[in-house]
Structures are given as C-alpha cells and as structure tokens.
Amino acid sequence: MKKSIALLVALAVPSLGTAQAMDNNAKFEKALSAARDGDAATAVVLFSDLAHRNDSSAQMNLAVLTALGHGTPQDETEALFWAWRARFGGENRAIDLTKYLSRQLPAKQRAAVAKRLLEELEAAAEQGHPAAFLGMCRTENEVREPAKPVAALAWCSVAAAFEVQGAAVLRDALGMELSVEDKTKAQLNGRALFLEWCKRVPEETRPISCPDVS
C-alpha cells in the first residue's frame, strides 16, 4: 500500500486544449494540492467529481484515499471499484492497487464490485458510449470469479466492431483460448448484442459502424 500512497502525489493530467479539459486540469491540480497539504476531505470531493467524469487519474487517487480512509471512511470495496475504473481507463499504476485490494477482500465483496462495474458500464453503453463495451469485456474476463470468457469475447467483439482501441487484440486473444463451439457461440452473441444496441441508440448519435436499422 505504501507504493500506492506514493502514486497519489506523482500523477499528472495532460494539458488538453478544450475549455472542459482545462477546467478539469485545474480541479485536478487543486485536489492534488489539497491532498499534499493534508486536506484529504477536499481532495476526496474534487477527485470524486472528476472520477465520475471518467478521469482515470482522479479515479486512481480516489481509490487510494478511500483505501486509506483519508477524507472519507475507509472502504476497500469502494476503493477496488474505483481502482478497476482507473485501470480500465488506461491508468496502469492502478494494476498493483487492484491486485492488493483484491487480496484484502472476501469473494462476496469482489463479486459485488464486478456486478457494479457491469451495471455502470452497461449504463454508459446505453448512453451511446461504445468504449464501455471493452470495459464489460474486461470485467467478465478479469474481475469475474470465475471468469466468463464466452461473455467477455461477445462484448469484446462488439467493442472491436466500433473500433475501440485495444478491443480487437483482446478479442483475438480470447478467441484463441476458446473451443470452436464456444468461440462461435460468443461471436453469435456478440453480433446479436451489436445489432440490439444499434437499434436502441438515437439516430443522431448512432455510430457509422451500425447497419441500417430503419
């Protein structure tokens, strides 16, 4: 956990050009300063707001503070959820934290985290965010106990269809590990999920990858 604490003051946010990004960067720096100055409560509030906006660095820091119980009641289950969110968002420094927290929690709590991840990612997908499908794939493959590789492959197939970065590589890796029957089942399920999602998404936000569903 000491390594995770050190990460709290080491993270930085890339400087992007949009007004929203600049606002997020300023809020992140304010949160980081609060954490360094010992005002953990303010840091938690600010990191939490950014975490809900899918800022993976903020999710990582929120996970650390929650695991330590600084500025918020200690809750390793909640911390594990945010650590996985950060990891799914590309924050590689969350890898060690997810492993550490998973070892601290009983199977029931780890299962609750997997369930919550799937629910939130499904909600994001329903709002028109195809990248959520890759998170669902990874949840089924990396967080579920035991893993559900057929379900994972189906979701990765959907993510790859929308050209989500990294989805095709994981899809192909999963496919190589399955029997022909399970791989075919996953592909059929993935296509059905893909078409179902395309039908539900409003036309104005529907990706070009979707076929004509009119």
3D architecture notes:
- This protein is mainly alpha-helical and 214 residues long.
- The protein is built from 11 helices and no strands.
- The chain has helices spanning 2-8, 19-36, 40-51, 56-68, 76-88, 94-104, 107-126, 131-143, 149-161, 167-177, 180-200.
- Helix 4 (56-68) packs antiparallel against helix 5 and helix 7 runs antiparallel to helix 8 (131-143).
Name some characteristics of this structure.
globular, 214 residues, mainly alpha, disordered N terminus, 71% helix
Topology:
Layout: H1 2-8, H2 19-36, H3 40-51, H4 56-68, H5 76-88, H6 94-104, H7 107-126, H8 131-143, H9 149-161, H10 167-177, H11 180-200
Helix pairs in contact: 1-4, 2-3, 3-4, 4-5, 5-6, 5-7, 7-8, 8-9, 9-10, 9-11
Mean pLDDT: 90
Which series of helices and strands comes N to C?
HHHHHHHHHHH
**Count of separate DSSP helical elements:** 11
- What sort of overall outline do the alpha carbons produce when their principal axes are compared? globular
In percent terms, what proportion of residues is strand? Answer: under 5%
Helix content: over 70%
Strands, count: 0
The end-to-end span amounts to: 53 Å
The profile of the biggest β sheet is: none
Give the radius of gyration. Answer: 18 Å
Low-pLDDT residue spans? 1-7, 9-16
Instruction: Assign the structural class, choosing from mainly alpha, mainly beta, alpha/beta, alpha+beta, or little secondary structure.
Output: mainly alpha
